[in-house]
Design goal:
217 residues, mainly alpha, 12 helices, 67% helix, flat
Length: 217
């Protein structure tokens, strides 16, 4: 097939979803800074101008990328237990950000799309059987997000982790007795364990705050 025919065939297959997925693949491999309309067009073997029919600007492209990423957070089946459901959603969110570590910062200004609304609807559906007030539901959901996002940032780079050998050496001097006591008791606790403990503490506190819970916990 000639180069021109190949480009025409590729152009005929274009969709906004394909363009956004290609941009995500580029970001996964090279970082979000590498994403451009020109680079996406090259990856799809089409002219750059062909993309503008589907994504008139970089802002539109980012919005489409964010919508696909939010789709990865949605659970296919929502557990009946609201605490189990919110825990699964939190882990699904964590998994998405681990697969796309650039997304937490790069997508922060993206306008919410349909999948963002579906995600929020699913979270609220999980809480529908509780006696929480609307404001308390939103507070709980945003606090869970804060916990997960903070975990993502903390564990994003091994270079940012504390030097445990250095810490142990300093603790051995006796200058940090409280830190030494904590380190002795918890040891090298895995990141996922700390996250699960934080989630459990949040959800248990929310459960106790209900005056007369009617949903399954």
């Amino acid at each position: 097939m000639s180069t021109k025919k190949a480009e025409q065939a590729a152009k005929a297959q274009l969709t906004l979803e394909l363009i956004a997925r290609t941009a995500i693949d580029i970001a996964d491999e090279h970082g979000f800074e590498a994403v451009s309309m020109r680079r996406v067009a090259e990856a799809l073997n089409v002219g750059t101008m062909s993309l503008y029919h589907y994504a008139p600007s970089k802002v539109d492209l980012v919005a489409a990328m964010d919508d696909l990423l939010m789709g990865e957070i949605l659970l296919p089946v929502l557990p009946k237990s609201w605490k189990r459901a919110l825990t699964d959603i939190a882990h699904q969110t964590l998994q998405m950000h681990r697969q796309h570590p650039w997304a937490l910062v790069a997508m922060i200004s993206a306008p919410p799309g349909l999948n963002a609304l579906r995600h929020m609807e699913q979270c609220l559906e999980a809480l529908a059987g509780t006696t929480m007030a609307a404001r308390d539901k939103l507070t709980l959901l945003t606090t869970i997000d804060d916990l997960v996002f903070g975990h993502v940032l903390r564990t994003a780079s091994t270079a940012a982790r504390p030097d445990r050998a250095f810490a142990r050496q300093q603790v051995a001097t006796g200058a940090f007795p409280h830190l030494g006591d904590v380190m002795l008791k918890i040891g090298d606790e895995r990141d996922e364990v700390r996250l699960d403990k934080g989630l459990k503490a949040l959800l248990d506190a929310a459960h106790k705050s209900q005056s007369s819970p009617v949903g399954k916990s």
